[in-house]
Amino acid sequence: WSMTSVLPSAPALELVLRFLARQYSWRVLGVDVGGSNTILDLADGDTWQQTVQTGLGIGDGCETILKLAGVSGVTRWLPFDIGDDEVRAYVAKRQASPWAIPATEQEAWLDQALAREALRSLGGLPWRADLIVAGGGTLAHARSSGQTVLALLDGLEPVGISQLAVDSALMLPALGAVAGLQPQAAGEVAI
């Protein structure tokens, strides 16, 4: 049915962001906080750089986030008090069931806190971009768009004025495949 297949997140994000950067003369920053990996792409004209942190995600990669940030690094983003052992227990639960979605509001906040620290671990703060594109289930399916925006602001510390776009339908891998055949169509859907 198609000459191409759906792409993994990293190359798909690259294709879409590079197209947007060239087409609109934008500096485009893309992030994807997945279950196992965290990806950061920066496209500016014909210049592109990508950082993929394998083993650093909200599912089976969340223990790595906790080791890098420490319990206090995670809890500083929470609007409630929680014990260190409770945070460690939640991380162990996510490790054991990386596909699970947060069952409570407290778990959703914990996922958002882990996402912030995953983004911060990529370095390069602060970031300057005309457009920031966010992907990954934790950012795309936060309980409110405000939570996603706060996670991006805290995790990336962007400077200047940026537009924000969230891949709430998790379509970037498919759009990356489309971009190989019809870049204009993929770019139009992406924005």
Number of strand elements = 5
* Average pLDDT taken over every residue: 90
How many H/I helical runs? Answer: 8
Shape assignment: globular
Strand order of the largest sheet: 3-2-1-4-5
Question: Percentage of helical residues?
Answer: 40-55%
> How would you spell out the order of helices and strands?
HEEEHHHEHHEHH
| Backbone CA Rg | 16 Å
- In the predicted model, the low-confidence regions spanning at least 5 consecutive residues are none
> Distance between the terminal alpha carbons, to the nearest Å?
26 Å
| Portion in beta strands | 15-25%
Main sheet characteristics: 5 strands, mixed
Helix/strand class: alpha/beta
What would you say this structure looks like, in words?
With 191 residues, the protein is an alpha/beta fold. It has eight helices and five strands. The protein has a five-stranded mixed beta sheet, sandwiched between helices. A hairpin with a 2-residue loop joins strand 2 and strand 3 (47-54). Helix 1 packs across helix 7 (172-181) and helix 2 packs antiparallel against helix 3 (84-96). The longest helix has 16 residues, at 9-24. It is globular. The protein starts with 8 loop residues before the first helix and ends with a helix.
